[in-house]
Amino acid sequence: MTAGIKWTRQATTANAAPQAAQDLAAGHHNAAIISAARQAFGTFTYTANLSAGDLVTINNTTLTAVASGATSLQFNIGGSLSATLTAIVAAITALSAVSALVTATATSTVLTITAKAKDGTGNAIYISKRTGDANCVVSGSQLTGGVSGDVQSLQDAAETVGIMSPAGNTNVVGLVLNDGEEGQSKTIYFYAKNGGNIALTCASGASFISGGTVYSTATFSATTNYVLFKWMGGFWVALVNSGVTFS
C-alpha cells in the first residue's frame, strides 16, 4: 500500500476524520477529487388546469392542449390538473424528436423537463408556454443547471477519491467504480455536497458487499460520508462505512 495512507488506524478510531479527508487536503499524489455531472432541467408550474389552446414548447416542438381527441403534437385536457400533466408527460414520451433530448415527469402541479445529456449541453434546450398564460410559470427560457463531470468512471489508481456534487438541483449523475485487482483498497469520500446525492455503482455487473449482503448501489447523501472498499473475490467489499447507504 502506498506510504502515507493508514486505513487501519482510521478504521479503529471512532468519529475520527477519515484519512481520505487528510489525504485530499494534503494533496497526496494518490488522492484525487472528482466532480459528478448533472443534467439540466426546467419546470412548468401551474396554479389551475390548462385550457384548450395552451401550449408546452420544448425546443422546436410545440404541444397543444385540446378538449379531447388528441393527435400527434396534442394532449387531452384531463378532469384535473394532475391528469392533464400526466397526459403531457405521455405526449412528450411518445414524440421521438423530444424524448431523444429530454424526459418529463410530473407532480400534481409541476411538470419537470430534464435533459438526457449528462453534461452542460442540455442548457441549450428551450422551453416555453403560451404567451399570456397566467396560470403557468416557466422556470426560464432554457433548461439550466447542467454540468459536465470531471470524471464519470473511477478507474484511476488513486486510493482515495473525493466526490464533489455540483451546486443546485438534485439531478446528480451517479459514478461508476470499475473492477479492481485482488486486495486493492479504495476509499470514496463525499468531499463536498453542493447539490443532490451521488449514487455509486459497479462496472461490469459487479456488486458491493456490506455487512455480508450484496448490493448494487452505494448512495452518498451528506458531506463526510465515506466508505473504504477492498476488491475481494469479484466484489467491492465495504470494510469501513460512515453514513453511506447501500441498496
Short description:
The chain is mainly beta and 247 residues long. Helices cover 13% and strands 38% of the residues.
Any key phrases for this structure?
247 residues, mainly beta, Jelly Rolls, 2 domains, seven-stranded mixed β-sheet, five-stranded mixed β-sheet, 4 helices, 20 strands, 38% strand, disordered N terminus
Describe the 3D structure.
The chain has 247 residues and is mainly beta. A hairpin with a 2-residue loop joins strand 15 and strand 16. It contains 4 helices and 20 strands. The chain folds into 2 domains: 130 residues, Sandwich (Jelly Rolls), CATH 2.60.120; 98 residues, no CATH class. The longest helix has 14 residues. Strands 1-11-13-18-19-15-16 form a 7-stranded mixed sheet, with helices on one face. Strands 10-12-14-17-20 form a 5-stranded mixed sheet, with no helix packed on it. Strands 6-7-2-9 form a 4-stranded antiparallel sheet, covered by helices on one side.
Would you tell me the overall average pLDDT? Answer: 82
- What Rg, in angstroms, do the CA atoms define? 22 Å
In spatial order, strands of the major sheet run 1-11-13-18-19-15-16
**First-last Cα distance:** 29 Å
SSE diagram, text form:
Layout: H1 7-11, H2 19-26, E1 31-35, E2 41-46, E3 55-58, E4 61-66, E5 74-76, H3 81-94, H4 96-99, E6 102-106, E7 110-115, E8 127-129, E9 136-138, E10 153-154, E11 160-165, E12 175-177, E13 185-193, E14 198-202, E15 207-210, E16 213-215, E17 217-220, E18 226-232, E19 235-242, E20 245-246
